[in-house]
């Protein structure tokens, strides 16, 4: 069955966010160490970017490493960081060849120096690409992001630069890491879990959620197309009633 042919390409989400979950469980099922699952998950990222381009999506945000992930075993964290460096360094040519512009959100200053350097290089090397924006959430926490925005506004109020009455949704959004991007219309979480795990809490106020039991290393183009087909079956009312749409 060709799922892409069933999709109305005039009504696809322009921004899709993904919580890439299930790498460790996938590896365990294969009798491998958890890090092997993360390694195979890189292929799923490539497949998802290809599918996003086919759909005409302009933004893909992927949750790669949360602030809570630092609580994992040290050897897994070190392996993830090494994998991250190798992957970013090895993908720049392909990103440029396919028109993918790389961005990051999160507290990247908290990453190892070699990760920061490769990330900065990749972002700079792809900054002129216009086909699709790939936004990687690294050392990211939505509560951290919102807390920083509140602190910034509080300092501006204290300094007399901001009237508290001027604080509204738009101002708060402009202080977040995602200020340059639209809110996602669709959020996908793999592996059968049904929670946001501190990801884009503010930005997902009106996002449609799609949960799939597929483990992230098994996620491929058709899995994204199925999510979009499900998205297109829904009526997005934004607080209104059907008759107002």
Give the SSE string.
EHHEHEHEHHEEH
What's the Cα radius of gyration? 19 Å
Q: Number of helical runs?
A: 7
**CATH secondary-structure class:** Alpha Beta
Mean pLDDT: 93
| Number of separate strands | 6
Low-confidence stretches: none
User: What structural category arises from helix and sheet content?
Assistant: alpha/beta
Number of domains: 1
**Main sheet characteristics:** 6 strands, parallel
CATH architecture: 3-Layer(aba) Sandwich
The name of the CATH superfamily reads: Decaprenyl diphosphate synthase-like
Shape: globular
Question: What is the terminal-to-terminal distance?
Answer: 32 Å
Strand adjacency order, main sheet: 3-4-2-1-5-6
In the CATH hierarchy, the third-tier topology is known as Undecaprenyl pyrophosphate synthetase
Helix content: 40-55%
Strand content: 5-15%
